[in-house]
Amino acid sequence: MKKSLFFCLLLTGMFRLAFAQAPNQFNFQAVAKYANDNPITGSASVRFSILDGSASGAELYQELHNNVMATDKGVIALQVGGGQVQGLKPWLNINWSTGAKYLKVEIKPVGEPDFILMGPPQQLNSVPYALAAQVSLTDKDQQTLSLSGATLSISNGNSVTLPDKDQQTLTLNNNNLSISGGNAVALPTQWWAASGTGLYNLNTGNVGIKTNNPLAPLHIKSDGVGGVGGAQLLLEENNESDGARLQFKNGFPDQFWDIWGYSNPDESLARLNLYYQNGSLGKDVISLSGTGKVGIGTNDPLAKLDVRGDAGLLGLRAETMNSDAVVGISTGDQNWAGVAGHCYAPDGNALWGQNFTNGKGGLIGGKDFAGLFWGGAVRITGISPVASANFAYFTLGPLPPPFQAPVSEVYNGNTQYSLWADNAVRGLQFQAMSDRRIKDIVGVSDSRRDLATLLQIEITDYYFKDRITKGNMPQKKVIGQQVAVVFPQAVDSNTQEFIPDILQTSRADNGWIALAGHGLQAGDIVRLFFGQKQVGLKVTEATVSGFRVDTAPSGPVFVYGRQVRDFHVVDYEAISMLNVSATQELARQVASLQQENDALRQQFLDLESRLTALNAQLNPSSSLNK
Fold first, then answer.
1. Lower CB count within 10 Å: N or C terminus of the chain?
2. Are 410 and 496 in contact (CB under 8 A)?
3. Stretch 474-478: mean pLDDT, rounded?
C-alpha cells in the first residue's frame, strides 16, 4: 500500500553552542498518513539523513530512531541529531556553513518489511544553519597569545616587540618576594621560603595536592587518570644509567632505606630494589627485575625466586637452565643442588636431579649432601668408611659430568631392585613378604635335588681388591660366577658396575691420562677419583701409553677401573632357602637312618639273647657253676 507523509511544521531548533558540549539537535514534528488518509499509528522506526547541496546530494549523516510512538492522529515528534548514528559519519562533522542541506525522512511501521521514503527530501532553512556559528567559534576565533623573548605575538595575527625596560625578574629570597626595578614584599613565615637553592616550609600543617583536606605532611590525591601511567607521585632521574630513589630515614643519620627504581628497554636490566644502608655498609635486601624475577640477598636474580644468604639454606633457585629443573639449592658460588632438572656443578659440591618430567625425577647430593629420586629405585654408595668423608647419593639414572658416567645405568636383569647398596646394610631386622596370596605356587621343592645342588656350591676364602672402601677383613662366601654354574637362579649377571681392575695413580692433562697397561678401549666408561670427587667418564681414545676422557679436570688422578655390564650379584636368600631344603632332606635321611639303626639295635639284642640261650644249652655245666 502506498504511503505518504505530510510535514506539518519544523519547530524551532534547540542548539547548545557551548564549545565542548553535545549533542546539537533541532526538533522535528510531522503527521504520517497512508494514501487513504488514515493515520499511521503505534510503534514505528524513523530514519533521518542529511544530504549535501540538493535532494539527491551526498549523504553527510544518518541516524535511526526505533520504537517511535505515533499518536492516534499519526503525529510523531523527534529531535534530529539525537538518534542512533548509522555508519562512521558523526553529526559534529557536518559543515553547516557550506551550501544547502536537505533532510530525507524514511519510516517503517510495525509489520512492514522495509523503510519507505516519505516524500522528497526537504531543504533545511534558518535555524539549522545556526550550527555554522559553532564552527566559526571553535575553528576560527580561537587564537593563541605567546611570548618568545621580547616578542609578543598572536596566532594568525600580528606581533610586537616589548621594550627591554619592561622585562623584570621575580625573585624569592627566604621569605622576601621582589621584582627587579620594583618593590619587594615580605611573605608570612608560615609560607614557603628559600634557603640557597632549596625551598622549605616550617608550618605545622599538611600540604594537599588535589585535596583541601590533607591528612599527612604531603597528601597527594588522584582520580586515576592523567599523568604518566596514572602516577600519583613521579620521580624522574636525568641520568639514564641511574635510577630514581625514594629514601626513608629517622634520627640515625647513617642508617636509612632506599627504594630504587631503574627502567631500561631491556627488561632483564630493569630493577626495583629495596636497599638498606647501615653506616658505611649497604646491601640490596630485595630486588625485582623487569622480567619478573625476585632476588633476596642479591640485586641480580637469576630465577623467578633467587634466595641467597648465610642461614643454613644458602640459596633457593628454580629455573630450567636448558633443562627440566624445578627447584635448586645453591652454596652461593654457582654450585647447585636441585629437584627435577639437569644441572652443572663445577666443583662437585652439589648435583641436580633429573628425569622429573617422566615421573622419575628427584634430588641428588654431592660430597656431604644426599637426596632422593621420586618414582624410582634408590641406590646408596660411598667412597670412604670415614664418617666425615662419606659420599652418598640416591639416583636411578645418569648424572652429568664430572660426577657420573654420561650414560644411563640400565639394568636388564630379572630382579626388581628397590634398594641398591654398595656396602653393608645394618638394621635390627629384615622381613620379607611371604603371603601365599601374592604367589602362584608350583609345589614343594625337591629337597633331594636341593641337597645335591647345595653340595656343589663352593665356599671360598678371599679378600676384596678395593680394600679402601670394602675393608681388609677375610671373607668366606660364594663366588657369583661359580654359583651361576650350579644354581643360576640365585645369580644376576646383568648388573652394570665399576670393577677395581686398574687401581693406579696418574695425572690428567686436558683429558689425557698417561697410563700403561690400563686395558681400556674407546667407548669404555672408567671411574676416576680427583681427590674426594669420583667421576665416571667415557673413554674417547685409548693407546698403549694412556687414554683420553671427556670433560675431566687436570691434575692428579686415581684410576679405579672400568665399568662392566655383566657384574655378578648373588641372592643369598635363595642360597639360604636352598640350604633349608637341603637341611630338611638331611633331617629326613637322618630320621630314616635312625629308624634303621633302632631296628638293627633290636635285631642285635634279639641275637644276643638267642646266643646266650644257645650257649646255655651247649654248656650246662657252665651255667650251673654260675
1. C
2. yes
3. 96
